[in-house]
Predict the structure.
Amino acid sequence: MSGSARQTAPHEVPPGARLVLYACLPSSLGEIADHSVASTRRYIADAGWEAVETYVDRAAPFESRALCEGWHNALAAVEQGRAAGIVTPLLVMLGHLEEDRTNLAAWQARTGALITTPWAVVDATVPTLVRRTAA
């Protein structure tokens, strides 16, 4: 199993999807960091999804998410069927430490949860053939 969760591309998230908005903001930045939650909330609305719950932890950026109450609440919302997955401003907010990333990947594999961000990109591992017309 991979040590990384699979980030769902926006076009793979169905319209009307019920998601938990989760952010872990550096406590040292105070309210300055709140814009990331507000912009993610707008992103959710623009995509046609629904933020059913919002959890924001204030912690050191490189601290384990295992110590964050909001993180556990976000996971529980998905496990209990209140949401199909998690949307976060930045993927690193779900875990910087290798152990956190491994646990997230295992949780996602077990639950089938969607994980997306405003910065999700399509995996372009399949080669694309480009044709040029003759001039």
User: Anything to note?
Assistant: The mean pLDDT is 86. Strands lie at 18-26, 50-59, 85-87, 114-116. The longest strand covers residues 50-59.
